[in-house]
């Protein structure tokens, strides 16, 4: 019988390749850095300032002694998702771990929701995960091992008003997760969804400042009474907590965790 402590070891991840979408900031960056720290080569993806992203790539490579690539494709487009996966396989020989994290948000009532925003959110938050998974799975099956982690949300399990596209996409991610898990149940590949609550990212910090101005409230009050109103713990989830959960799911201890949501939400969905 295996020792429980040994099952949590990350030694088995050394030399593997992790592809993390939307990984130049926020949750994705924390996840990418965690895998680099565990000895994985990393395929980054992200839009934004090209020089800053290249500096990030070089830092991770130098700091952790692993190989790191960077793709700046638009992952709302199926062909560019496929190219991202193919480029990573060409660079590293394989993708062992796929973390589908890329996403975007927009808030509006259904009857006023812009058509282009709906299409973008569904394409980036849901369809990109499908196309990346489709491209990565054959290699994982050939090697008899793989980990697919979809960064969903508490909104993959519950709804909030004015977030129709985001909630629909995240519920879709849960359906995709379950289907891939069942199809791969006997292949050595797992597929899970991490469902965070509000996470302390630069994007959320910007929302706090904006809400403070709109409501004429101190930022501390906005955090507690507006942003974290649904999160019983009244504290943000830290990006590193999501990254640590991703590492755990890829460790030997996560081998039987598949097809399920893993909530990291401060009690949000316990209500």
Structure description:
The chain has 271 residues and is α/β, with parallel strands linked by helices. It has two domains: 15-199 and 238-264, Rossmann fold, CATH 3.40.50; 200-236, no CATH class. It is built from nine helices and seven strands; from the N terminus they run αβαβαβαβαβαβαααβ. The protein is globular, with a radius of gyration of 18 Å. The chain starts with a helix and ends in a 7-residue tail after the last strand.
Could you give a quick summary of the protein structure above?
The protein has 271 residues and is of the alpha/beta class. It is built from nine helices and seven strands; from the N terminus they run H-E-H-E-H-E-H-E-H-E-H-E-H-H-H-E.
Total individual domains:
2
Q: In the CATH scheme, what's the topology name of the largest domain?
A: Rossmann fold
Q: Number of DSSP helices?
A: 9
Strand tally is: 7
CATH class of the largest domain: Alpha Beta
CATH homologous superfamily of the largest domain - what is it? NAD(P)-binding Rossmann-like Domain
Report the average pLDDT across residues.
Answer: 95
Biggest sheet record: 7 strands, parallel
Provide the helix percentage.
40-55%
User: Based on the structure given, which CATH architecture of the largest domain is correct?
Assistant: 3-Layer(aba) Sandwich
Strand order of the largest sheet: 3-2-1-4-5-6-7
Strand content: 5-15%
